[in-house]
Please model this.
Amino acid sequence: MTFQELPTSSTITEVPNADGTTTRTIVNQYKDGTRRTVKEILSESDTAAPQMVQALPVNPSPSAPPLLYATDVEGQQQQPPYSATPSPHPPTAPIMVADAQQPSSPPRSKKAPPVPSNILTTISILFVVLGTTFGIAAGVYTYMSQTEDNDDYEEDGMKGQWAGAGAIFLFTLATPFMFFSGKLYRMKRASKGRPAFVMASWIIYGFALAYAGGLLFLGIEVEDYVRPTWVFAAIAVNLLAFLLMMFHAEAARTR
Model:
């Protein structure tokens, strides 16, 4: 884009020709004293039709700085004039409107990676495996003590009672050990685990111990009263309590 100096004064004269056309002469006077003359031949239609003439701004005095107007390189488009002197009014800064952005969601807090299993988990699993073994043995000996043609029924009944007592003792330790194992995982990883599983496990744990203890008491006091299926049911309930607690501990370790 180039800037051209505007004339300080312009003189326009029109002279009709014999063929009906009109010769228009424009004389531009510039600040440096030079003159430029432009002649145009207008037809009758051009002179008859009213034309919109835009007056160019002229400097009020020869001493004032010239006005400049901008044209593109090809000279095909003319922009409004610009003054070479700064305006007394400060220019208005363009307002930049930023694109509306969706509020980003807060970053999720990163949890610690899963931790390896601790010794309490291993001990609790060992307790529950041994408890299940002792419980099955108690059910088998109870069944053998109640079968006919068994000369060793009293000895089998005693073995069943001792195996049942051992199973109750091991199941009594297995679930609390798993609970404390999950508590250690929670402290290391700041995880909640499965609180609902903990509550359900404690409820079933209390019922299972009371049920197994009642069977042991009846087996000692009342001969041939406890059925093997009752013993196996006690094993299943204790296993359920332990598994719920183990799911809680595993969730605290990995999730």
Q: What stands out?
A: The beta strands are 2-5, 9-16, 22-29, 35-42, 67-71, 78-83. Residues 153-189 form the longest helix (37 residues). The two ends are 66 Å apart (CA to CA). The chain has five helices and six strands.
